[in-house]
Amino acid sequence: MHKVLFVDDEAFILNAARRLFSLHDIEILTAQSAKEALEIFKKQKISLLVTDQRMPEMLGTELIEQVRKLYPDTVRIILSGYTDLTSLLEAINNGKIFRFIVKPWNDEELLQHVNEALEQFQLNSRHRNQEEQMLLALAQTIELKDAYTKGHCERVARYAIEISKELGLSEEQIKDIRYGAWLHDCGKIGLHEDILNHPGRVEELQMLEIKKHPDNGAKIAEQAALPQRVVNIIRFHHERVDGEGYPLGLNRDNLPLEAKIVAVADVYDALSSDRPYRKACSQRQVKQIMAGFRGCALEEELVDLLMDNIVPRLLAKQESSE
Ligand SMILES: [Fe+2]
User: How far is the CA of 3 from the centre of ligand 1 (A)?
Assistant: First the structure.
Protein backbone atom coordinates (compact mmCIF):
# COMPACT_ATOMS: atom_id res chain seq x y z
CA MET A 1 0.00 0.00 0.00
CA HIS A 2 1.27 3.49 -0.84
CA LYS A 3 2.29 5.72 2.04
CA VAL A 4 1.53 9.42 1.71
CA LEU A 5 3.00 11.84 4.23
CA PHE A 6 1.18 15.12 4.91
CA VAL A 7 3.19 17.82 6.68
CA ASP A 8 1.48 20.89 8.11
CA ASP A 9 1.85 22.82 11.36
CA GLU A 10 -1.95 23.12 11.60
CA ALA A 11 -3.49 19.98 13.12
CA PHE A 12 -6.92 20.56 11.52
CA ILE A 13 -5.37 20.35 8.03
CA LEU A 14 -3.82 17.01 8.87
CA ASN A 15 -7.12 15.75 10.27
CA ALA A 16 -8.96 16.86 7.12
CA ALA A 17 -6.40 15.03 4.96
CA ARG A 18 -6.79 11.86 7.05
CA ARG A 19 -10.59 12.05 6.73
CA LEU A 20 -10.45 12.62 2.98
CA PHE A 21 -8.30 9.56 2.34
CA SER A 22 -9.86 7.28 4.96
CA LEU A 23 -11.89 5.40 2.36
CA HIS A 24 -9.01 5.05 -0.09
CA ASP A 25 -6.42 2.35 -0.36
CA ILE A 26 -3.64 4.68 0.80
CA GLU A 27 -1.91 4.90 4.16
CA ILE A 28 -1.83 8.49 5.37
CA LEU A 29 0.95 9.55 7.72
CA THR A 30 1.13 13.03 9.23
CA ALA A 31 3.77 15.30 10.73
CA GLN A 32 3.43 18.75 12.26
CA SER A 33 6.93 19.87 11.38
CA ALA A 34 9.63 19.25 8.80
CA LYS A 35 11.82 17.73 11.51
CA GLU A 36 9.14 15.23 12.44
CA ALA A 37 8.65 14.45 8.75
CA LEU A 38 12.35 13.68 8.25
CA GLU A 39 12.22 11.28 11.21
CA ILE A 40 9.34 9.42 9.53
CA PHE A 41 11.35 9.24 6.28
CA LYS A 42 14.18 7.50 8.15
CA LYS A 43 11.89 4.63 9.13
CA GLN A 44 9.42 4.25 6.26
CA LYS A 45 9.35 4.25 2.49
CA ILE A 46 7.17 7.21 1.50
CA SER A 47 5.65 7.30 -2.00
CA LEU A 48 4.39 10.89 -1.82
CA LEU A 49 5.16 13.92 0.35
CA VAL A 50 2.51 16.66 0.55
CA THR A 51 3.83 19.60 2.50
CA ASP A 52 2.69 23.03 3.58
CA GLN A 53 5.05 25.87 2.62
CA ARG A 54 4.99 28.21 5.61
CA MET A 55 5.96 26.32 8.75
CA PRO A 56 8.07 27.37 11.75
CA GLU A 57 11.70 26.11 11.74
CA MET A 58 11.80 24.94 8.12
CA LEU A 59 9.92 26.00 4.98
CA GLY A 60 8.17 23.44 2.81
CA THR A 61 10.57 24.16 -0.07
CA GLU A 62 13.54 23.50 2.24
CA LEU A 63 12.01 20.19 3.34
CA ILE A 64 11.38 19.33 -0.32
CA GLU A 65 15.04 20.05 -1.11
CA GLN A 66 16.27 17.71 1.61
CA VAL A 67 13.85 14.94 0.66
CA ARG A 68 14.84 15.28 -2.99
CA LYS A 69 18.48 14.68 -2.07
CA LEU A 70 17.93 11.95 0.50
CA TYR A 71 14.91 10.11 -0.95
CA PRO A 72 14.82 10.95 -4.67
CA ASP A 73 12.10 8.40 -5.52
CA THR A 74 9.48 10.13 -3.36
CA VAL A 75 7.14 12.38 -5.37
CA ARG A 76 6.74 15.88 -3.87
CA ILE A 77 3.77 18.25 -3.72
CA ILE A 78 3.39 21.65 -2.02
CA LEU A 79 -0.03 22.36 -0.59
CA SER A 80 -0.15 25.92 0.65
CA GLY A 81 -2.19 29.07 0.96
CA TYR A 82 0.95 31.10 1.16
CA THR A 83 2.95 31.73 -1.98
CA ASP A 84 6.46 33.05 -2.05
CA LEU A 85 6.60 33.29 -5.80
CA THR A 86 10.39 33.22 -6.12
CA SER A 87 11.03 30.01 -4.21
CA LEU A 88 7.92 28.44 -5.67
CA LEU A 89 8.98 29.16 -9.25
CA GLU A 90 12.46 27.91 -8.49
CA ALA A 91 11.03 24.65 -7.09
CA ILE A 92 8.78 24.15 -10.11
CA ASN A 93 11.35 25.06 -12.73
CA ASN A 94 14.00 22.79 -11.27
CA GLY A 95 11.66 19.83 -11.19
CA LYS A 96 11.70 19.72 -7.42
CA ILE A 97 7.93 19.49 -7.08
CA PHE A 98 5.32 17.55 -8.99
CA ARG A 99 2.41 19.93 -8.25
CA PHE A 100 1.55 23.07 -6.34
CA ILE A 101 -1.94 22.97 -4.82
CA VAL A 102 -3.62 26.02 -3.31
CA LYS A 103 -5.33 25.86 0.09
CA PRO A 104 -8.20 25.54 0.80
CA TRP A 105 -8.29 22.57 -1.51
CA ASN A 106 -11.10 21.07 -3.51
CA ASP A 107 -11.49 17.41 -2.41
CA GLU A 108 -11.96 16.02 -5.90
CA GLU A 109 -8.93 17.88 -7.22
CA LEU A 110 -6.70 16.89 -4.33
CA LEU A 111 -7.66 13.23 -4.78
CA GLN A 112 -6.82 13.46 -8.45
CA HIS A 113 -3.47 15.14 -7.85
CA VAL A 114 -2.54 12.49 -5.27
CA ASN A 115 -3.53 9.66 -7.60
CA GLU A 116 -1.48 11.14 -10.44
CA ALA A 117 1.48 11.61 -8.11
CA LEU A 118 1.26 7.95 -7.05
CA GLU A 119 1.21 6.90 -10.71
CA GLN A 120 4.37 8.96 -11.18
CA PHE A 121 5.95 7.19 -8.18
CA GLN A 122 5.13 3.83 -9.73
CA LEU A 123 6.67 4.89 -13.03
CA ASN A 124 9.82 6.03 -11.20
CA SER A 125 10.04 2.73 -9.32
CA ARG A 126 9.57 0.70 -12.49
CA HIS A 127 12.28 2.72 -14.20
CA ARG A 128 14.59 2.22 -11.22
CA ASN A 129 13.91 -1.56 -11.21
CA GLN A 130 14.68 -1.86 -14.91
CA GLU A 131 17.91 0.08 -14.43
CA GLU A 132 18.90 -2.18 -11.52
CA GLN A 133 18.09 -5.39 -13.41
CA MET A 134 20.22 -4.23 -16.32
CA LEU A 135 23.20 -3.33 -14.16
CA LEU A 136 22.99 -6.53 -12.12
CA ALA A 137 22.79 -8.57 -15.33
CA LEU A 138 25.93 -6.83 -16.59
CA ALA A 139 27.69 -7.58 -13.29
CA GLN A 140 26.61 -11.22 -13.45
CA THR A 141 28.06 -11.73 -16.93
CA ILE A 142 31.51 -11.48 -15.38
CA GLU A 143 30.53 -14.09 -12.80
CA LEU A 144 29.71 -16.43 -15.69
CA LYS A 145 33.34 -16.24 -16.83
CA ASP A 146 34.66 -16.90 -13.37
CA ALA A 147 32.80 -19.56 -11.39
CA TYR A 148 34.59 -18.60 -8.20
CA THR A 149 33.08 -15.15 -8.12
CA LYS A 150 29.48 -16.41 -8.28
CA GLY A 151 27.41 -14.27 -5.93
CA HIS A 152 30.46 -12.09 -5.15
CA CYS A 153 28.97 -8.84 -6.56
CA GLU A 154 25.77 -9.15 -4.58
CA ARG A 155 27.57 -10.04 -1.36
CA VAL A 156 30.00 -7.12 -1.76
CA ALA A 157 27.00 -4.84 -2.35
CA ARG A 158 25.30 -6.21 0.77
CA TYR A 159 28.33 -5.53 3.02
CA ALA A 160 28.96 -2.11 1.42
CA ILE A 161 25.32 -1.08 1.91
CA GLU A 162 25.42 -2.16 5.57
CA ILE A 163 28.56 -0.05 6.12
CA SER A 164 26.95 2.91 4.33
CA LYS A 165 23.83 2.67 6.49
CA GLU A 166 25.95 2.62 9.66
CA LEU A 167 27.62 5.80 8.39
CA GLY A 168 24.22 7.41 7.82
CA LEU A 169 24.71 7.97 4.09
CA SER A 170 21.77 9.14 1.97
CA GLU A 171 19.55 6.88 -0.14
CA GLU A 172 21.09 8.34 -3.29
CA GLN A 173 24.65 7.62 -2.08
CA ILE A 174 23.64 4.10 -1.06
CA LYS A 175 22.06 3.49 -4.47
CA ASP A 176 25.32 4.48 -6.20
CA ILE A 177 27.31 2.32 -3.80
CA ARG A 178 25.04 -0.64 -4.59
CA TYR A 179 25.60 -0.14 -8.34
CA GLY A 180 29.33 0.40 -7.90
CA ALA A 181 29.66 -2.72 -5.75
CA TRP A 182 27.81 -4.80 -8.31
CA LEU A 183 29.96 -3.49 -11.14
CA HIS A 184 33.33 -3.06 -9.41
CA ASP A 185 34.95 -5.89 -11.40
CA CYS A 186 33.13 -5.33 -14.71
CA GLY A 187 36.46 -4.45 -16.36
CA LYS A 188 37.42 -8.13 -15.97
CA ILE A 189 35.14 -8.84 -18.91
CA GLY A 190 38.15 -8.23 -21.15
CA LEU A 191 40.42 -10.66 -19.27
CA HIS A 192 41.12 -14.12 -20.62
CA GLU A 193 39.51 -17.00 -18.67
CA ASP A 194 42.95 -18.56 -18.19
CA ILE A 195 44.03 -15.55 -16.18
CA LEU A 196 40.74 -15.25 -14.29
CA ASN A 197 40.67 -18.92 -13.26
CA HIS A 198 44.40 -19.29 -12.76
CA PRO A 199 45.15 -21.76 -9.94
CA GLY A 200 47.93 -20.30 -7.82
CA ARG A 201 49.74 -17.02 -8.09
CA VAL A 202 49.77 -15.32 -11.47
CA GLU A 203 52.94 -14.25 -13.24
CA GLU A 204 54.10 -10.67 -13.57
CA LEU A 205 52.88 -10.26 -17.14
CA GLN A 206 49.44 -11.58 -16.25
CA MET A 207 49.38 -9.29 -13.22
CA LEU A 208 49.92 -6.32 -15.52
CA GLU A 209 46.83 -7.40 -17.46
CA ILE A 210 44.80 -7.86 -14.28
CA LYS A 211 45.78 -4.41 -13.07
CA LYS A 212 44.05 -2.86 -16.06
CA HIS A 213 40.58 -4.02 -14.99
CA PRO A 214 39.69 -1.04 -12.73
CA ASP A 215 40.39 1.46 -15.52
CA ASN A 216 38.73 -0.65 -18.20
CA GLY A 217 35.65 -1.03 -16.00
CA ALA A 218 35.53 2.69 -15.19
CA LYS A 219 35.60 3.47 -18.90
CA ILE A 220 32.59 1.19 -19.47
CA ALA A 221 30.74 2.97 -16.64
CA GLU A 222 31.62 6.39 -18.02
CA GLN A 223 30.41 5.32 -21.43
CA ALA A 224 27.12 4.25 -19.88
CA ALA A 225 26.89 7.71 -18.21
CA LEU A 226 26.68 6.16 -14.74
CA PRO A 227 27.03 8.53 -11.76
CA GLN A 228 30.53 9.68 -10.76
CA ARG A 229 30.37 7.73 -7.49
CA VAL A 230 29.84 4.49 -9.43
CA VAL A 231 32.78 5.28 -11.72
CA ASN A 232 34.94 6.10 -8.66
CA ILE A 233 34.16 2.77 -7.03
CA ILE A 234 35.08 0.82 -10.15
CA ARG A 235 38.27 2.79 -10.81
CA PHE A 236 39.54 2.91 -7.23
CA HIS A 237 38.46 -0.38 -5.62
CA HIS A 238 42.07 -1.66 -5.64
CA GLU A 239 43.57 1.52 -4.23
CA ARG A 240 44.87 1.41 -0.65
CA VAL A 241 44.79 4.04 2.09
CA ASP A 242 48.61 3.84 2.36
CA GLY A 243 48.96 4.79 -1.34
CA GLU A 244 50.35 1.38 -2.38
CA GLY A 245 47.36 0.30 -4.46
CA TYR A 246 46.58 0.57 -8.17
CA PRO A 247 45.93 2.04 -10.73
CA LEU A 248 46.87 5.54 -9.45
CA GLY A 249 48.33 4.99 -5.98
CA LEU A 250 45.86 7.36 -4.31
CA ASN A 251 45.81 7.47 -0.50
CA ARG A 252 43.38 7.95 2.40
CA ASP A 253 43.18 11.71 1.82
CA ASN A 254 42.25 11.67 -1.82
CA LEU A 255 40.35 8.39 -2.11
CA PRO A 256 36.57 8.89 -2.31
CA LEU A 257 34.65 7.40 0.62
CA GLU A 258 32.51 5.19 -1.65
CA ALA A 259 35.63 3.48 -3.04
CA LYS A 260 37.04 2.89 0.46
CA ILE A 261 33.74 1.33 1.55
CA VAL A 262 33.58 -1.08 -1.38
CA ALA A 263 37.27 -1.97 -0.98
CA VAL A 264 36.58 -3.15 2.59
CA ALA A 265 33.51 -5.14 1.49
CA ASP A 266 35.41 -6.64 -1.46
CA VAL A 267 38.38 -7.80 0.61
CA TYR A 268 36.14 -9.28 3.30
CA ASP A 269 34.14 -11.27 0.76
CA ALA A 270 37.25 -12.43 -1.10
CA LEU A 271 38.69 -13.79 2.16
CA SER A 272 35.50 -15.49 3.28
CA SER A 273 34.79 -17.30 0.01
CA ASP A 274 36.63 -19.92 -2.09
CA ARG A 275 39.09 -18.66 -4.71
CA PRO A 276 40.76 -20.55 -7.61
CA TYR A 277 44.04 -20.63 -5.66
CA ARG A 278 42.73 -21.30 -2.11
CA LYS A 279 39.75 -22.33 0.01
CA ALA A 280 37.75 -19.80 2.01
CA CYS A 281 39.41 -18.66 5.25
CA SER A 282 37.79 -19.42 8.60
CA GLN A 283 36.08 -16.48 10.32
CA ARG A 284 38.96 -16.38 12.81
CA GLN A 285 41.52 -16.10 10.01
CA VAL A 286 39.39 -13.49 8.23
CA LYS A 287 39.29 -11.43 11.42
CA GLN A 288 43.06 -11.62 11.79
CA ILE A 289 43.77 -10.72 8.18
CA MET A 290 41.29 -7.85 8.20
CA ALA A 291 42.91 -6.51 11.39
CA GLY A 292 46.27 -6.63 9.58
CA PHE A 293 44.86 -4.52 6.75
CA ARG A 294 43.62 -1.76 9.10
CA GLY A 295 45.32 1.51 8.23
CA CYS A 296 47.47 0.14 5.39
CA ALA A 297 45.20 -1.34 2.72
CA LEU A 298 41.86 -0.41 4.28
CA GLU A 299 40.47 2.46 6.34
CA GLU A 300 40.44 1.58 10.04
CA GLU A 301 37.02 2.96 10.88
CA LEU A 302 35.37 1.06 8.02
CA VAL A 303 37.08 -2.23 8.91
CA ASP A 304 35.93 -1.82 12.51
CA LEU A 305 32.34 -1.06 11.48
CA LEU A 306 32.22 -4.17 9.34
CA MET A 307 34.06 -6.57 11.64
CA ASP A 308 32.70 -5.38 15.00
CA ASN A 309 29.10 -4.45 14.15
CA ILE A 310 27.96 -5.80 10.82
CA VAL A 311 29.58 -9.23 10.44
CA PRO A 312 28.57 -10.48 13.93
CA ARG A 313 25.01 -9.33 13.23
CA LEU A 314 24.87 -11.01 9.80
CA LEU A 315 26.43 -14.23 11.13
CA ALA A 316 23.94 -14.37 14.02
CA LYS A 317 21.09 -13.84 11.56
CA GLN A 318 22.46 -16.58 9.31
CA GLU A 319 22.77 -19.00 12.25
CA SER A 320 19.24 -18.34 13.46
CA SER A 321 17.82 -19.02 10.00
CA GLU A 322 19.71 -22.33 9.65
FE1 LIG B 1 38.79 -6.03 -8.77
Answer: 40
